Task: structure prediction
Amino acid sequence: MRLLPKKSVWIVAALSMLLTGCGEAQASPPPHYKVWSVSQDSWQSRTFVGPQGGIVITMASWCKYCAWEAKWQEPKLLTWGRAHHVDVTLVDISPRGGIGVAGPQNNPNIGKDGSGQYLGTSIQGIKALGHVLQRYSAIYHEPPRQFTIDPTDRTPFAKKTQRLPTIFILNAHGKIVYTFSGITTASRIESQAAAS
Result:
């Protein structure tokens, strides 16, 4: 019987494990991010994903385009997310108060940015923004539990936002797999999330 050199044995073993799946790396759990929960009025650790992934919408309470999304698109998106086990979260990334006014469904440009003071990123400012978002959720009929705050850019979603709102599609492992910049219809978001 002919023996293989030690190096050859290791190479054969490694190839065998890869081909049979024994050497596959386990999928890592989704990352957790520290954000302010509006409904809990406290810092919380969130993954932003459900069993089938997640949708994160970065927004600002004062933004008219975010208000348009809140009035015309997000109610459909929240219903779809619940039915498909996809977590939908709104993350306010602006440390300024004020509530935007949504334009009509056929023209988001007619809306109006809300005016409000700069609240800052101190705990008092974040709490104040949380109260603004409580009012926002009542105006636009969205549950406060959907809202979180990240005014200090702790999450990659805040860091990657260049235009409000920005919509991030996440897979079940929390990886960003698609991004929409600016207002986007619920049907486009849903079809992209279903395909991801």
About this structure: Helices lie at 6-20, 64-72, 74-84, 123-139, 156-160, 186-195. The chain has one domain: 28-195. The radius of gyration is 21 Å. Residues 28-195 form a domain with the Glutaredoxin fold (CATH 3.40.30.10).
